Amino acid sequence: MGAAAAAGPTFYKDVLPVLQRNCQGCHRPGEATPMALMTYQEVRPWAKAIKEAVAVRRMPPWFADPHVGKFTNDRSLSGADIATLTAWADTGAAAGDPAEAPPPVAFTEGWSIPTPDLVVEMPESFTVPARGTIEYTYFIVPTGLTEDRWVQFAEARPGNRKVVHHIIAFIRDPDSKWLREYPRGKGFVPNRGSRGEMSGEFMTGYAPGSPPEALRPGYGKRIRAGSDIVFQMHYTASGEESVDRSKVGIVFARQEPSYRVLTLAAQNNKFTIPPGAPNHPVDGAITLHAESELISLLPHMHLRGKAMDVRAVYPTGETEKLLSVPRYDFNWQLWYQLPPGKKLPAGTRIEATGYFDNSPNNKANPDPAATVRYGDQSWEEMMFAFFDLAIPVSMNPRDLLRARQPVASSGAGR
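^ that's the sequence the OP posted. Answer follows.
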């Protein structure tokens, strides 16, 4: 039996490289996952569970249809990697020779990005009640920047993962009027009329499974001198009173980029999902009036979200499917990153269709008898297809969303 185990894959030579490439980014101390997969002692008790999870492709989480598009951050394991992990579990999960281990991956403690140049933290802790619905709560925090800077990496880190459902960190320019009626440094719930999330520029976010913002060299998000970071916090009660103080880490580009990155969305907030509907479609679209480069895509729905397709309709009338997620999972909010160079000509329309399962067959459905509409809370619904675009730094971002008006002729030269 020992000979059979020795003949199979070993942890240090065969398994550890797979875990480093695909698992340790999340499965390490301080992250959201329930166990670390860094050492043999940590991994060995989970050998059979790892085999089962990779065999059904539940882990690593990746939901894109492999026949639609190519993505540079594809987490799905190769057949060879699955075979290695399966054989290791089946042959005794041997350790092998530690001398055959690859060098450990260097992680920044407390962050998934390089060591931040600037950390912007909620100025005070927020007490989350034990029960009840907590409306989206906002905090406005000055950056203290005295000159314009460009962001290459940004990460939102919850102070208490038990109660933080999501964080969105917006950049508020110094001349923006958005939320000016509210004080800096104190948590508040704005009235619906003043929220206007897109009045601030999306910098980064946190949600279950979502990665930090990580842009290629030459690309960046701009923070003007004197800007504020606006935290949008979605808290959920856990059954006991809890405290949170979340933060955002920022790594600045080392030189001014050539391209500015913006986060937009094809969305719909005017829909009704009938009770019991098993596959209800909701469409959203946005037209881009200037040439741009498509960088990444993120589908977002709530507990009734079932699937989503995202398409580009070009000025020629041709339609290209950009992303298909046939098995959407609310617990994993994933960005799908495209290879460099995906150009979208002026006049491209980004269309998305989300499909919702409001039937009793959906085990996550809060209430199959409910008529469901747009709303903040998880028992309500959303339909967003977020995407990151790059434009030249010299371009006015407003030109993306407004059609150019024809220049009136003076009649000269007729």
